[in-house]
Design a protein that fits this description.
Elements (H helix, E strand, L loop, with lengths): L1 H16 L1 H39 L3 E6 L2 E3 L2 E3 L7 H10 L5 E14 L2 E10 L2 H5 L4 E4 L4 H5 L4 E4 L3 H4 L4 H4 L3 E4 L2 E9 L13 E5 H8 L8 E5 L6 H15 L10 E5 H44 L1 H9 L4 H37 L8 H27 L3 H6 L2
Parallel strand pairs: 5-10, 7-9
Antiparallel strand pairs: 1-11, 1-12, 2-3, 4-5, 4-8, 4-11, 6-9, 7-10, 8-9
Length: about 400
């Protein structure tokens, strides 16, 4: 034990004797580990961000969109459609498993007093707010009677009052202009945040019939239909029910390709995670090349160190040092250099991740597993690339070493 401790002390003293060279030697390891930590932190942060957005969308929601029709083997976009009749059929012919909400949307110019803003107007049913778990800060939602009566009423997203430079409580009951038409503000939603690249806080919600026949000039094509179940476990049954009802409505025979698409938010999350994981591995692999280059640099410096300290090795062997002791000493030097480089790299990577998070507003997560892996990998590089120089030092003949100039 005493001998091992003495060897470690001698190895550390040799590193301290050339502190600048030791730091420059580990620079490749520092950069490589920092790059790996930063890339993995960005990947983990992106994954968590998307997972949060999918949670806001709802994991028990199916999105139905128009598909594509084929003519002579050529895809013809825009020839298929979803209509309000499809949404009515899903609600009327379903088994009660689904909560249905159609959606039609387009940009609209909002004006109030001398303020104006360009926002997305969304025409839908009252069930939309339940599906996406919206809550109110002021006022109320529109109801089914207002949908049937094509009433000009609007529920504003959380950020819209600010865009109109008016406190939300002062907008309730007031009339705003949407694309030149008057709408009464009946409610303001609570803050929702971004949900799958959509910002409900910037949207204005109106009855779907009002949007179709008063706001969008008689356009009867829906952008999509949302169908929600009580639990995610019921999604498979819901998928079959939607497919059955819409095929009947569109007169599509069994076995023929459907002219609509049904998508699950969980599928979007799975696809993103696979893509994100691929890019994370790719970027981490590129950063790993820096670790490899750093390891080669350490091997070269250790070989130079063996050459410079040939007489020292000869003296130690002449005084009774064994091959194992010399081998252990140089391995310790290589391991310490790489481990310190890995530690500095972890600190640098953590700092870079925090900087990106604060300056660029990117979500980053430094996973403990990535830190441990980086440190173990850097120590492994020290062991791998330190073996040859250590063996070369251990095999030196003491007489030849003492004669070395």
């Amino acid at each position: 034990m005493k001998l091992a401790l003495e060897i470690v002390v001698v190895a550390l003293a040799a590193i301290r004797a050339n502190i600048l060279r030791s730091f420059l030697t580990t620079l490749g390891i520092v950069i490589g580990v920092a790059a790996v930590i930063t890339m993995v932190a960005l990947g983990e942060g992106a994954q968590q961000s998307v997972e949060q957005q999918i949670q806001r969308m709802g994991t028990n929601v199916l999105t139905i969109r128009p598909g594509q029709s084929m003519w002579g083997g050529v895809s013809r976009e825009g020839t298929t459609r979803l209509t309000l009749d499809d949404a009515d059929a899903l609600q009327a012919q379903g088994t009660g498993l689904l909560t249905i909400a159609p959606e039609i949307s387009s940009r609209s110019q909002l004006t109030y007093s001398r303020w104006n803003s360009n926002n997305t107007a969304v025409g839908t049913w009252p069930e939309y707010f339940d599906i996406y778990d919206h809550s109110l800060t002021h006022g109320r939602y529109f109801n089914q009677g207002e949908v049937q009566g094509r009433r000009r009423v609007a529920v504003l997203g959380y950020a819209v009052p600010e865009a109109l430079s008016t406190p939300p409580e002062l907008l309730i009951g007031k009339t705003i202009q949407m694309s030149g038409q008057p709408f009464e503000v009946i409610g303001v939603l609570a803050e929702k945040g971004e949900a799958a690249w959509i910002r409900p806080d910037d949207q204005v919600f109106v009855p779907v019939t009002t949007a179709m026949y008063r706001l969008f000039g008689g356009r009867d094509r829906l952008s999509s239909i949302y169908a929600a179940t009580n639990t995610p476990e019921e999604l498979d049954l819901a998928y079959g029910e939607i497919d059955r009802v819409l095929r009947r409505e569109h007169r599509i025979r069994p076995g023929e390709e459907a002219d609509f698409n049904i998508r699950n938010s969980a599928d979007l999350l799975s696809t993103f995670n696979e893509t994100n994981q691929t890019f994370t591995y790719l970027l981490a692999g590129i950063a790993g090349v820096s670790l490899l280059v750093g390891g080669i640099g350490i091997m070269n410096i250790m070989l130079v160190s063996v050459t410079e300290r040939t007489r020292e090795i000869g003296v130690r062997k002449a005084l009774g040092a064994t091959r194992r002791a010399v081998l252990f000493q140089f391995l310790i030097e290589a391991l310490v250099l790489c481990f310190l480089g890995g530690l500095l790299g972890v600190l640098g990577g953590y700092g870079a991740a925090q900087l990106m998070s604060s300056v660029m507003n990117w979500q980053t997560v430094v996973a403990p597993g990535a830190v441990i892996t980086a440190l173990v990998f850097s120590a492994g590089i020290g062991l791998f690339f330190g073996i040859w120089p250590a063996q070369r030092a251990a095999k030196l003949d003491p007489i030849d070493a003492l004669r070395y100039e």
